[in-house]
Sequence to fold (251 residues):
Amino acid sequence: MSRQKIAAGNWKMNTSHSDGYFLAEAITKAKRPKDVQTIMAVPFTHLGAVQAHTYDKKNIAVAAQNFHHEEKGAYTGEISIGMLSSMHIPYALIGHSERREYQKESNKLLATKLDLALAHNIKPIFCCGEKLPIRKSKKHVSFVKKQLKEGLFHLSKSDIKRVVIAYEPVWAIGTGETASPEQAQEMHAAIRKMLADKYDQDVADSISILYGGSVKPANAKSLFGQPDVDGGLVGGASLDADGFVEIIHSF
Ligand code: PEP
Fold:
């Protein structure tokens, strides 16, 4: 089965409004392969401007980096899923390791957010991944399994098929240290087996699993060439239009 290939950029808390506008414009206007879905996860303040570039284009879309776990209410400064869906935002990141770490987002909270996103027809990109000590103690597969079990596996068979999974080893995010293609493949194959065991092989074969952690133009080809790696979630390297477009062409 052929799965959707995805190159997703995560701008995090970077770019001024005008820099973001021109970055999105350059990526949108660049020649991109038709069979790769390009996604730009941008700060809330940039969603409208970036979507103005993408809304009438094929194979490119904007994503939110977060939303609040309540539908509405007295949560000053927060953004609700309903606000995103009223803007027709098609994707949202859920459970990025920086939010797990700094905002203490738990698997239980992330499960609630997943339900909210799906109820509002926003496709979640669910992030998982282990820190270095867990990798060193060789418990990385069971750690990620727990993240999926508690955050994701309450979903029905039809709903899980609407999710994109991003495996991002925390020790490789923003560090310049990338998982080797073999390390990425090992975990991606393990995640696919978890999906097959919990649901079935059809589900496992249909879900795109992205790798994230210091993906750059120089290493994207070898990572995306692995049989269970369906693309990347790219932080730092997605802020340079030429470099990101090169990554989009790395399948
Ligand atoms: C990320 O932000 O999800 C990420 C993988 O960052 P970087 O590519 O900079 O490591």
About this structure: The pocket of phosphoenolpyruvate is lined by residues 10, 12, 168, 173-174, 212-215, 233-237 (CB under 6 Å).
